[in-house]
Amino acid sequence: MSVIEDIARPDAPDRWREYRRMWATFRRSHSAILGLIIVSAFLILAAIGPWIVPFPDDAYGAVHFERKLQAPNATHWFGTDEVGLDIYTRVIIGARTTLWIGLTVTGIAVLIGVPLGLLAGMSDGVLREVIMRVTDVFLSIPGLILAIAIVGALGPGILNAMFALALVWWPGYVRLVQAKVLSVRNETYVEAARSIGASRARIIFLHVLPNCTSPIIVKASMDMGLAILGAASLGFLGLGAQPPYPEWGAMISIGKNYLPDWWWYSLFPGLAIYLTVLGFNLLGDGLRDMLDPKQR
Amino acid sequence: MTPRPDVVTGLMTVDALLAGRPDVAREALWHMVLPAIALSLPALASIIRVNRAEMIESLDKDYILNARAQGVGSLRIVAAYALKNAILPTLAMIGLRFGWMLGGTVLVEGVFDYPGLGLYATNAAVSSDFDPIIAVTLVLGACFMIVNLLIDLAYAALDPRVRAQI
Amino acid sequence: MSEAMLTLQDLEVHFPTKGGVVRAVDGVSLSLRQGEILGLVGESGSGKSTVGKAALRLIDPTGGQVLIDGTDITTARLRDLKPVRTKAQLIFQDPHSSMNPRMTIKRIVGEPLIIHTAIRGAELDQTVARLLERVGLPAQFLHRFPHELSGGQKQRVAIARALAVDPDLLILDEPTSALDVSVQAQILEFLKELHAERPRMTSLFISHNLAVVRFLCHRVAVMYLGKIVEEGPVAQVFSNPQHPYTKALLSAVPLPEATRGAGRIQLEGDLPSPVDRAQGCAFHPRCPVARKGLCDTKAPPRVDTGETWARCHLIGETP
Questions:
Q1: Residue A20: inside a domain, yes or no?
Q2: Structural domain spans, chain B
Q3: What distance in Å separates residue B94's CA from the closest CA in chain A?
Q4: In a domain, A216, yes or no
Q5: What percent of chain C has pLDDT above 90?
Q6: Is any Cβ of chain B less than 8 angstroms from the Cβ of A181?
Q7: Which of A184, A289, B28, C11 is the 20 to 30 Å CA partner of C226?
């Protein structure tokens, strides 16, 4: 009997069909694929970096004055810096630092922002007002400036820089999630869930939250790039990672003093930042087209 | 380098003009060109992008079709009908980007060694001198708020639906 | 006469807004006997949908009482409402937006069962398949998403979801007005069938479509600006309407009964805002027969005519 056969099938096939449809949308955009390739390459480099670099000792600072400031050549593909460290090595190892920063900052921001946004969206009255007004205060000051102020209070360093960035990043998620929750919770299907007696928790976690995930995923993917850029900015200003720590922003911060004659010093870390941020942005755009067809 | 004119407003270009030294003013302006370009290019890109998307959307609406059917000229359709609706999200993006640019000044001033608020804040932060940081944060925060207020007012001026809510 | 399945006693729903208090529902009393289908008709904005939602406490009433199968649910806490949710179900106007777009049909129809029963796993799958079969959908639909179904199919799924908990009371909020006419007919036929085979099933059918109400309902209540102006058996109300508003509504629809009388009654103006309600009879500003000094000063009394009653000063006089 076909009825029994059909329901014996687990849920999996329809999920896969849905994923295949999404992938087809994603694949149609060349820039999304380019973003995916860049981000994948970045992730692979971060994973296997220490085992493929030619001068692993150069990563966390060593001194080789005998080969300082060499232009790119067969041994040192990206040249060397003012104390003779191999820039190729340091850029590759820097991918780990960068990935770590991006994940931590975005992760903390999501972990703080999404629950607060849900809470503000689902509650009425005082609680919502408090959450949203605090969020507004954070959003009323440009992010990088606020991060600089926080680092100024805590003292320069990579951990403090990450902390400062996470602290200025979460309000964006509160806004996004709260606005989305407000629109979703007025949807008829939420009313329908109430009419069949669904509990509050069931409504929030099964009906509201799953319908808010697409914009969160898209924003998180874009924010990976922006957080990386923010950390590099702080490093560049001398407020983030301190040289000789292998962080791209900090490398440019020193390298800019050697422009324009020793251009390779800041060019390659700069290119690395550029490509990574570009990759995450393109990926985020692609994800948006894939997950939120309405926003196209 | 030419000597600094008397400080009246503290703005180099204005002071130079007040002192009757257009050559100094020109030089001061010249020093702003590259930092200004560096700051505005990324904002330019995203504003164009938003405006393009919105224009495409509003040109696709039925009231545009209706205007065409009634023989309204193409230029008028684009400039008066479509742009008026597309400009609202663009304005929101301009406000957002203004905040980013305020943050970006810190970096750009660092790169060009331009003695502005951003560089001041950075140097203070590096030496953990907290008071200047607070001051800069407040001033830039106030700037951002004023721009956002102006954008909200522009919203109300352009969109009767927003006006009705006030 | 069997007991009442749904009783509304002076139900009031007032929304405070910037422009003043909107009296969406203003003292509505209705009683539905077991097995009865009552049509609630009115223009959009008359408050008929709000009555449906307030009857299930999806909107909290600001006054009056709601009794479902004898239980007063007006002030029940959310937790205590759970048993009521198995007794009464709502079907929405737009079936598409009433389904979570991320759930498969199986989960949508199965959700009430998960909430209210201990049925899980293969048994749940079979129960859901049986429900779909009951509403005339093949079991392949189990694994589809709402957006892959047509409007009529979605409304059938919505009915299957409502039937999952075996309810005695259905509140149908314009269940066919978002559908194509041909599909409407199928759904209406199905609802009629459903009632024929479940004698306990009671329905409050909210609609602006008089023809549909005449086809499906036993009794009809006409709402105007938050108040019921006329109520009675369908046959009587349709053949011999008492209230001028009902007469106007009926004259606008091509119905066999409506041939009597002097043709079409055209109402002037739109439905006024429920905020600045007129003094006296709410309908008098648009009423073709309103009498100065009476209709614009005094609220009209309830006048019974056989099984029908209406709220109008001028009943019994020659119109």
A1: no
A2: 1-31, 32-161
A3: 14
A4: yes
A5: 21
A6: no
A7: A184
User: Across-strand partners of C204?
Assistant: C38, C171
Q: Which of residues 204-233 of C touch A (CB under 8 A)?
A: none
A150-154, C155-159, C271-275: least confident range: C271-275
Note whether B106 contacts A: Cβ–Cβ < 8 A. yes
In chain A, whose CA is at the least distance from the CA of C94?
A188
Would residue A43 count as lying in a domain? no
% chain C with pLDDT above 70: 92
Decide if A259 is inside a domain: no
HSE (CB half, 13 Å, CA atoms) of A64? Answer: 19
Dihedral (Cα; C145, C148, C153, C158), 10-degree rounding: 30
- All residues at 6 or more sequence positions from A74 whose CB lies less than 8 Å from its CB, including other chains: none
Residues C120-172 pLDDT 10s = 888 898 999 999 998 888 888 888 888 888 888 999 999 999 999 889 999 99
Q: Tens digits of per-residue pLDDT, A240-254?
A: 888 778 888 888 888
**Phi/psi of residue C132, nearest 5 degrees:** -65, -40
**Cα–Cα nearest to C2, from C70, C59, C55:** C70
Any chain B CB within 8 A of the CB of A281? no
Q: What is the CATH number of domain C4-87+167-311?
A: 3.40.50.300
**The domain spanning residue A141 has which CATH number?**
1.10.3720.10
Assess B111–A contact: CB distance below 8 Å, yes or no.
yes
On the question of a cis peptide bond just before residue A260, with omega within 30 degrees of 0, the verdict is yes
Please count the structural domains in chain A.
1
Q: Which amino acid is at A48?
A: I
User: How far is B116 from chain A, CA to nearest CA, in Å?
Assistant: 13
Tell me the chain A residues in contact with residue C104 when contact means C-beta distances shorter than 8 Å: 11, 14
**Which domain, by its residues, includes A182?**
95-249+270-291
Residue of A nearest to B101 (CA): A142
Question: Would you kindly state where each structural domain of chain C is located, as residue ranges?
Answer: 4-87+167-311, 97-166
| Beta-strand relationship, C169-173 and C219-224 | unpaired
| Phi, psi values for residue B11, rounded to 5° | -90, 120
Which of left, alpha, beta for C64 (phi over 0: left; psi -120 to 50: alpha)?
left
